[in-house]
Amino acid sequence: MVQILEFSLPLRMKMNFGLTFRAVKGLCMVKHSRQYSHGSIGLFVPPSPPVDPEKVKELQRFITLSKRLLVMTGAGISTESGIPDYRSEKVGLYARTDRRPIQHGDFVRSAPIRQRYWARNFVGWPRFSSHQPNPAHWALSNWERLGKLHWLVTQNVDALHTKAGSQRLTELHGSMHRVLCLHCGEQTARGVLQGRFEALNPTWSAEAQGLAPDGDVFLTEEQVQSFQVPSCARCGGPLKPDVVFFGDTVNPDKVNFVHRRVKEADSLLVVGSSLQVYSGYRFILTAREKKLPIAILNIGPTRSDALACLKLDSRCGELLPLIDPH
Ligand SMILES: [Zn+2]
Q: Where would I find the Deacetylase sirtuin-type domain in this sequence (predicted)?
């Protein structure tokens, strides 16, 4: 399961300090906002100790010894691209806000909930889709190109691994860049849907953007209720982002596929995940059964620290480029 918040929330963390202050708990965010420009890594990356050269050597040894490395990534790899995670102390969404993820069942059952979801998603899309890979994504893509990476599994739905060129990749929870019809299952590109939203809501669009020049979205009830949501062009069914919402489960075929990749691997590296969500954690259990060596790169504790032979509390984008994949 994955926690997909509507887009407006991360956007709220930008620039306008008055609004930002109202939107967050505690002073930490305000301090960070002043230290870094919006969208920079300082907003969403938890503080970490300086890189420990000895630990880097240990990770280098781990990677050098591995011939069939499986890497699993989570939200922590994308914070340096300006996308917040959920569980990090002080900077994660759960710590900063009262908003909680949309539930799969609510989305499927309720047209008004879908309407609200898509209205916010529509406004947030230009910014969300503009996020770029950071040095950690590029490093993993490079490892694949050099034959070091057996498989990459991500819990993220931001498509940043794809943007970095990774191909031996399973997006465990889907991708925000695709849209799925709940009736006929047709998959379409999210970018195309944006054009359909604009065509259906010409006036609405201008109004919402006028209200929110910095992407800070406060939609009124009237705005939400007047927002027109297109349906599947093929069958007329309701549309949903092709992601696993909270309360839904990952496709069993996909789970089995990843289990097989884990069983083929000779070591496992976790990058930027606290492994709190079972859909990712279960692959750690499989790796443990196979007695694979496990290394974890994550700022803050994870559910599997006790199972890891190596744990590093560093920024992914700072550390991974230091590793020679040969
Ligand atoms: Zn359809």
A: 49-326
139 Cα: distance to centroid of ligand 1 (angstroms): 38
Instruction: Measure Cα distances from 233 to 114, 176, 184 in Å.
Output: 17, 19, 10
The answer to whether 298 and 272 are in contact (CB under 8 A) is yes
Give me Rg for the CA atoms of the chain. Answer: 20
- Assign 296 a pLDDT band (cuts: 50, 70, 90): very high
Q: Which residues are annotated as a binding site for Zn(2+)?
A: 181, 184, 232, 235
Average pLDDT over residues 212-233: 76
Q: Which residue has the higher pLDDT, 92 or 295?
A: 295
Most confident of 18-32, 40-54, 287-301: 287-301
All domains of the chain, ordered by start, with CATH?
53-322 (3.40.50.1220)
Lookup result for tokens 């959920």: 86
Q: Which two tokens stand for residue 242?
A: 């092709």
pTM above 0.70, yes or no: yes
Q: Give, to the nearest 10 degrees, the angle between helix 202-211 and helix 190-200.
A: 100
Asked about 173 being catalytic, the answer comes back as yes
> 240 CA distance to ligand 1 centroid (A)?
11
Annotated binding site: 74-94, 155-158, 181, 184, 232, 235, 272-274, 298-300, 316
The long-range contacts involving 143-150, CB below 8 angstroms and separated by at least 24 positions, are: 143/69, 143/71, 143/325, 144/168, 146/325, 146/326, 148/63, 148/66, 148/69, 148/325, 148/326, 149/69, 149/70, 149/71, 150/68, 150/69, 150/70, 150/261, 150/264, 150/265, 150/266
